[in-house]
Amino acid sequence: MTASPTRQRSETPAPEYEYTGQWGKQVHAFTPLKAPVGVTVDAENNLWVMDTHNHRMIEYDEHGVFISHHR
Length: 71
Fold this sequence. Notes:
Layout: E1 36-41, E2 47-51, E3 56-60, E4 66-70
Antiparallel strand pairs: 1-2, 2-3, 3-4
């Protein structure tokens, strides 16, 4: 027994979307840590902190001065 299609497939154009913002809150370099889970020191003695709930890694110099954050 072979199956035969009962309906033909129709192509529907994809909807168009527009970026209007982001979900959640904006995280800045000086936003407090929220659930830091990892810390490491690189070859230049910079301290890196993995801040999971803010989805970023923060870099400090060996004196604790903020250098940058990466998302």
